[in-house]
Amino acid sequence: MNLMPPLRGASRGPFFLVAFVGLMLGVWWMDGANSPTPADDAVTPPFPEWDAPIVPELAAAGAELFRSKCAACHNVTGDEKLGPNLADVTRRESASWMRGMILRPDSMTEHDATARELKARYAVQMTVPGGISGGDARAVYEFLRRGDQGRAER
Ligand code: HEC
Questions:
Q1: Running DSSP on this structure, what letter comes out for residue 8?
Q2: Which residue, by CA, sits nearest to atom 12 of ligand 1?
């Protein structure tokens, strides 16, 4: 029995179809890689408490991500923007609260009293443009923690 048809004439069709579908699946997968999905949320490990040792490379990556994903609405120093100033937020709030707020702000507004109060005060629902992956959320948290540890030492 010949399982491999020769790549000639009409039999080439199915091969290209499979390759094309594979490519599209790849594009779809990469496109989704940066959006939070409930599955992504579920597999993201717990965040460390604010005073745990800092991983410098992670904090550096987080600084970049903060600029692109958060700085439109948040300052860490200086004036408030659309949302609250985030200085000292990792000391005020628990690690798990921070994890929830960065990954699923909509769900926090729905289920968490503190998040609901903030929403009422700022009159805008926090939403991260393009979403954020669990790993990126963790990096931004590291950046915020690094700043808060620095302020605590002063
Ligand atoms: C579109 C504007 C917007 C963007 C972008 C945004 N936020 Fe927010 N954020 C808000 C608003 C508004 C609130 C107040 C709660 C609410 O209204 O939902 C908030 C609240 C928070 C809080 C709670 C602050 C406190 O004082 O307890 C944290 C932490 C936070 N945001 C972190 C982030 C991080 C980290 C990013 C980037 C990954 C981000 N936010 C991106 C608007 C934004």
A1: S
A2: 83
pLDDT in tens, the chain (154 residues): 566 656 555 566 777 777 877 777 766 665 545 556 666 677 899 999 999 999 999 999 999 999 999 999 999 988 899 999 999 999 999 999 999 999 999 999 999 999 999 999 999 999 999 999 999 999 999 999 999 999 998 8
108 C-beta closer than 6 A to ligand 1: no
Pocket test of ligand 1: the residue of 35, 74, 102 to mutate, having most ligand atoms within 8 Å of its CB, is 74
Cβ burial 105-124 (10 Å sphere, 16+ → b, else e)? beebbeebeebeebbeeeee
Strands (E), 1-154: none
140 close to 102: Cβ distance less than 8 angstroms: yes
